[in-house]
């Protein structure tokens, strides 16, 4: 096993809007389209420094149109809202799965504080 867990399976279920990712360490994550979109690794969302991260709202129904492999290290997720600039490395997908509860709550708190809607 490598230092960074390696994906063994990745697929999207449109019916429930979930990306399923299984890694070689036995972890299996269910990541919603909304969660993936608001946590996109793109500069458009993350900015170039942590304090530049943007709050993305209005994505509760966003889905995926395609998943494109990028070499041996990532996938490009193409969302049905037109967003397609983030490359989700295996390490980043693992981090999103591992830290989902904390990240999701921080997002919900930020949405509430901004008086916005998901």
From TrEMBL:
Pfam families, sorted: GBBH-like_N
Matching InterPro entries: GBBH-like_N, GBBH-like_N_sf
This protein's record includes keyword Glycoprotein: no
Boundaries of every Gamma-butyrobetaine hydroxylase-like N-terminal domain copy: 14-94
Keyword annotations of the record: Iron, Metal-binding
Protein name: Gamma-butyrobetaine hydroxylase-like domain-containing protein
Organism: Lacibacterium aquatile
């Amino acid at each position: 096993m490598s230092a960074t867990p390696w994906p063994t399976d990745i697929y999207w279920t449109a019916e429930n809007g979930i990306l399923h990712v299984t890694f070689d360490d036995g972890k299996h994550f269910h990541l919603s389209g909304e969660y993936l979109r608001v946590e996109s690794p793109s500069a458009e969302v993350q900015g170039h420094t942590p304090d530049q991260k943007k709050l993305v709202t209005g994505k509760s129904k966003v889905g995926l149109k395609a998943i494109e492999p990028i070499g041996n290290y990532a996938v490009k997720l193409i969302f049905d809202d037109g967003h397609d600039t983030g490359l989700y490395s295996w390490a980043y997908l693992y981090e999103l799965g591992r830290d989902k509860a904390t990240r999701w709550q921080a997002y919900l708190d930020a949405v509430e504080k901004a008086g916005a809607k998901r």
